[in-house]
Specification:
single chain, 182 residues, alpha+beta, 4-stranded antiparallel beta sheet, 4 helices, 50% strand, elongated
């Protein structure tokens, strides 16, 4: 008899618990979180300083963004990192400047560091620490209507170690998060 009562309670309570939690599930299914990665690939080479290269990236070039662009409710900055893909010598040390700006030239973020042992970024990508004002500037840009292209600039100077011509394959990754309506 105890087993029957226990089974009856289990049969009645378990469906009830799912029914009450069901509203949260439905609300969560109204939006879909999307990660939108952007990569700026730099093939920096030369023997005179500074060596500067500029790359552009438009969100319309991203397949995830294109699949959901008419359903995106919000889009915001998550993180930015840099990694070295190739080096002419693992002993290269250089001053590095990374700039992120709108395609029209409005600055959003600038990072500058002297004497970077570039091989460190080859084994462990460098994650940028952005101030709240930098994140706000990027988020405000992303919320603006019509502007969906960013420009990244990499400037490498004062290279030591190795011999010229110097070659540095640098990638700057920017991760955005969007919420799309289902």
């Amino acid at each position: 008899m105890k087993k029957i009562k226990l089974m009856l309670v289990a049969v009645l309570l378990l469906p009830g618990m799912f029914l009450f939690n069901g509203c949260d599930t439905v609300e969560n299914l109204e939006t879909l979180p999307l990660n939108i990665p952007m990569s700026f690939n730099f093939a920096i080479s030369g023997s005179t300083f500074p060596i500067t290269q500029i790359q552009n990236y438009c969100l319309e070039d991203n397949p995830t963004y294109n699949d959901f662009k008419n359903k995106i409710d919000s889009i915001s900055f998550v993180e930015m990192s840099a990694r070295i893909d190739t080096l002419s010598s693992n002993s290269l040390v250089a001053d590095v400047v990374i700039q992120l700006e709108t395609s029209s030239g409005l600055p959003l973020f600038t990072y500058s560091q002297s004497a970077v042992a570039l091989a460190q970024w080859k084994t462990t990508p460098f994650t940028f620490t952005l101030a709240a004002s930098d994140i706000d500037a990027i988020d405000n840009f992303l919320r603006s209507i019509g502007q969906r292209c960013l420009k990244a600039t990499a400037i490498v100077s004062n290279i030591t170690g190795g011999t010229a011509p110097y070659k540095v394959g640098l990638t700057v990754d920017v991760l955005l998060r969007a919420k799309a309506k289902l």
